[in-house]
Amino acid sequence: MRNSSTQPTDSNDPQLVAVHRPPNNTNSQSSAPPEDSSRAPQATNPQDQARPAQRHRTLPADPKALPLAYEHCAVSDMVVLIAHMLSELIETNDGLALRSDYLNRLAHHATLSPPLLLSMVYYIDRLCALYPEFTINTLTVHRFLITAATVAAKGLSDSFWNNATYAKVGGVRVAELKLLELEFLYRVDWRIVPNPDVLVAYYKGLVERCPGYALESSTVNSPLENNCPDSLATVAANGEASNAPAESPKGQNGDS
Fold this sequence. Notes:
By secondary structure, the chain is mainly alpha-helical.
């Protein structure tokens, strides 16, 4: 037993060496100066102090250029622009962010074109102007989007699906969608055809407020002179963009 108690010595056991070594040992003194010398340039060198700014390199250097005419904008990009705007509104109202999955689903399965998506933005603006108490939050945004998509597609497009398809895509029942559609039309006084100039302004505003996007710089004609949407171009030519009654009676079948 005595031999086992005398085996751990200061030279063999590293733990005992670390504990019993005097503080003024040459090894500890030799390790201190390199630490002080390495810290000195970090405090005095201004380049080292600016190192956190290198995080900005992870951001995209150049924004994605979008066409000047909203009709030529990709649907995926238009979804990002509108989802960012809706997210700002929702965060202002209830502090929660909106994911673009639902709007992406509507645009894909309901075959929404850029003019129809911009018309949904017009409906938001019109409802906010007519009803100051109208707010979009996480509880109302999904039903508003599917209702606005249904009204825009059936009122502004030459081809559209029936209510059963829109209800399935939006995740609501057909009876509920019919009530939402009728209530929506009454709220906007059946004025669902926006002025093409308004859509151009909305498009530019969405691009300006969304990071990572910018309009391409090109000397082209106005989008209104190139390729207007089929329904909107006809309305604009007749001068009925602002005061025409709703075109929702189009395609009034059994479940429209």
